[in-house]
Design goal:
The chain has 149 residues and is mostly helical. The chain contains 5 helices and no strands.
Length: 149
């Protein structure tokens, strides 16, 4: 089914945000298997931690951020389906989800732990913010008035 032009843009941005959210969630697992940015960041902040405790902290982050990613996927899908169905509550719901998602992303990027450093290394914190770019585009397109022809 072909979507009206005023819906195609927001939906494209929402599905891009969905893909970016999945990629951001996967980035944590790729890091664990390759670069170990998170483990090195925790080790630098807590040099006295034994390796088992660093591994435990990394696992905790993976669990928490996986749940956040799953909730993000659910939010993208719910709002995209609402927009596609033409629900009246789609724009305010998408706006609230954007605010919540951006707040969670900023918390991951900026919140400092007891070591004085941010909980996440900057690269992973910024990876969590990337889906918000699609969110701001989707919100801007959703609230733009459709052109009358």
């Amino acid at each position: 089914m072909t979507q009206p032009p005023h819906v195609r843009g927001p939906l494209a941005a929402m599905y891009a945000g969905l893909a970016l959210t999945v990629l951001a969630a996967i980035a944590m697992y790729v890091d664990r298997g390759t670069t170990h940015l998170l483990a090195d960041h925790i080790r630098a902040g807590y040099p006295n931690y034994p390796q088992a405790r660093v591994d435990s902290a990394v696992t905790t982050y993976l669990i928490v951020l996986s749940v956040v990613g799953a909730l993000g996927v659910l939010a993208w899908l719910t709002t995209a389906l609402a927009v596609q169905a033409g629900k009246q509550w789609a724009r305010p719901a998408a706006t609230v989800m954007f605010i919540l998602g951006t707040s969670v992303g900023l918390a991951g990027l900026l919140t400092k732990d007891t070591s004085g450093a941010t909980g996440l290394p900057p690269q992973l914190g910024w990876a969590g913010m990337v889906p918000c770019l699609a969110g701001v585009v989707a919100i801007a397109l959703l609230w733009r008035r459709p052109r009358l022809t």
